[in-house]
Here is the input.
Amino acid sequence: MTPERAVLEAIVDAGQSTRCTTCGTTLRPNALVECVLLEDGTLEATRCFGCHEHGLDGDGWLVEGQLEPSISPAGRSRLVLSGATVVDRSK
Here is the structure.
C-alpha cells in the first residue's frame, strides 16, 4: 500500500476524541496532529502539535493532518485524518 492510499483510509480512533500518545492531552475534531502510520494502515502514534517531533526512528510513514469526525459503515462515530500529508523524514 502506498503512503497516500494508507492516509486516505486511516482511522485515528473510535468516538469523538483521542489522546496524544506523548502528553495525554485530549484531542478533538479539528485538532492538528502528527501520526506514525504503518504500512497496514494502522496508527502507531498520534501526537498533538505541541509534542510533534518531525523525526522518529522506526517503521512507517510520518503524516500530518487534522482530526475530522466521521461515521463508520456500521453507523458508529469515529475520528479520521483529513487533509493529511506524508512528511519527508529525510530532511
About this structure: DSSP finds one helix and seven strands in the chain. Helices lie at 3-8.
